[in-house]
Amino acid sequence: MPQNPLFADRTQAGEKLAQAIYDIVTQQTIDSGVKPRTIVYALPRGGIPVAFPVARLLGCPLTVEVAKKISHPENPELAVGAVTASGVVLWEEQGFYRKMKTLQLKEVALKSATEQAHFLQVQLQSACPPVDPKGATLILIDDGIATGMTMAVAATSLRKLNPAEIWLCSPVAPLKLLPWLHQWGDRLIVLATPKNFLSVSHFYSEFPQVETREALKMMNYE
User: Fold this and answer.
1) Strands 38-42 and 137-141
2) Does 222 score more than 60 pLDDT?
3) Between vectors from CA 145 to CA 86 and to CA 1, what angle results, nearest 5°?
């Protein structure tokens, strides 16, 4: 268990994030006189328990945008990019993928991540409600942002759906990553931005793997 965690678990983190987002939506409605149409998109699976309280408080649909990191075949901990289930690919800017020994390694890494994304999409799609993202405010949520690659590629994918805005939202992200993250969304909402960032799990007392059954139950909350 980490010392002095910021959140008890994903549910508590989601409740805190929900209130922060709700306050911004409320103020936006007061300022403009028009309540934005919102859709919550979770990055599964870990983002779903965080997104659930947000969708519930806003009274809007909860769906998913599946994205997986592309790991270097020779070092699974090294993220060289990310890909969505719809096939949108983003390679990291430091060029680690260029250092792969062969083009074949790059293709293997991409193929593996794409297959994982497709598998997860199939598992969850039955619980995804029909939504119309065009002209809506899309609230993209994960349980934490470490490298930002999956958040960035998911936002890139959602941008193709012609929303009014995309908000990138998370309980925690590294302070140094914020300037980079801003380019991918119209609004960035992060509750905690520690300078010393070891891993997302470090900031939770309880951080178990989210099982598919649990994820589906939350997706069907309506």
Assistant:
1) parallel
2) no
3) 125
